[in-house]
């Protein structure tokens, strides 16, 4: 049985968890160290006991957000597969769900932050690239046999883009309709089984 985390480790994790939510909610530029520390219930002065820089925190928070988003998507897809959906249908329906539309703070960091990723420092850009590669790999694993080998990246772009556009329209009928149209299109391309 692993030892419980030390107080410093628990505090570090709390800061990373808070930053992971904050960057998805407000973007990289929308949060500062003082804001994150305050939201975590800590003083600003304690930050440098845990991180060498703001960029180091952002890279770790992005990795954490990606792990959370992947785990959440995996749970959603497993539940759909348990009800008989194909892996492809489960992925598309989970990623382009109304729940994911409303959950920017806890959802996929690629969709929440893609437009900001290229303007970050090299450390954060690399953490972002890992998240993008992970999403493409997840799509590749879910595509049905016979799908063109290079289609995973294109489909990942469609998933992220549709979620971003739906969020731009809002968590409303218009945003949900955009997600539904994209779901239908992607499912018709790779899983033409009619909706149950």
Explain briefly what this protein structure is.
The chain has 196 residues and is mainly alpha-helical. The protein has helices at 7-26, 33-39, 54-82, 87-95, 98-102, 109-113, 122-142, 151-169, 173-190.
Characterization of the model:
The chain has 9 helices and no strands. The protein has 196 residues and is mostly helical. The protein has one domain: Tetracycline Repressor, domain 2 (Orthogonal Bundle). The longest helix is centred in the middle third of the chain and has 29 residues, at 54-82. The relative contact order is 0.12. The mean pLDDT is 92.
**What is the structural class?**
mainly alpha
Query: What's the rounded overall pLDDT mean?
Result: 92
The total count of strands amounts to: 0
Question: What is the CATH class?
Answer: Mainly Alpha
Domain unit count: 1
CATH fold group: Tetracycline Repressor, domain 2
Radius of gyration: 18 Å
Percent in helix? 55-70%
Q: Count of helices?
A: 9
Q: Spell out the helices and strands N to C.
A: HHHHHHHHH
**Largest sheet features:** none
- Tell me the β content: under 5%
The residue ranges in which pLDDT falls below 50 over 5 or more consecutive positions are none
Q: Could you give the distance between the termini?
A: 44 Å
Backbone shape: elongated
CATH architecture: Orthogonal Bundle
CATH homologous superfamily title: Tetracycline Repressor, domain 2
């Amino acid at each position: 049985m692993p030892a419980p985390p030390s107080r410093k480790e628990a505090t570090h994790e709390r800061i990373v968890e808070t930053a992971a939510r904050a960057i998805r909610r407000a973007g990289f530029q929308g949060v500062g160290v003082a804001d994150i520390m305050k939201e975590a219930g800590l003083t600003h002065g304690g930050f440098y006991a845990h991180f060498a820089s703001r960029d180091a925190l952002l890279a770790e928070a992005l990795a954490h957000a990606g792990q959370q988003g992947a785990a959440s998507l995996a749970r959603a897809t497993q539940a759909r597969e348990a009800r008989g959906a194909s892996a492809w249908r489960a992925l598309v329906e989970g990623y382009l769900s109304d729940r994911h539309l409303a959950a920017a703070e806890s959802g996929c960091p690629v969709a929440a932050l893609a437009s900001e990723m290229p303007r970050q420092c090299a450390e954060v850009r690399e953490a972002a690239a890992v998240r993008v590669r992970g999403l493409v790999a997840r799509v590749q694993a879910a595509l049905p046999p016979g799908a063109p080998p290079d289609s995973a990246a294109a489909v990942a772009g469609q998933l992220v883009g549709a979620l971003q556009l739906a969020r731009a329209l809002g968590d409303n009928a218009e945003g949900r309709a955009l997600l539904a149209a994209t779901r239908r299109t992607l499912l018709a391309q790779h899983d033409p089984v009619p909706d149950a």
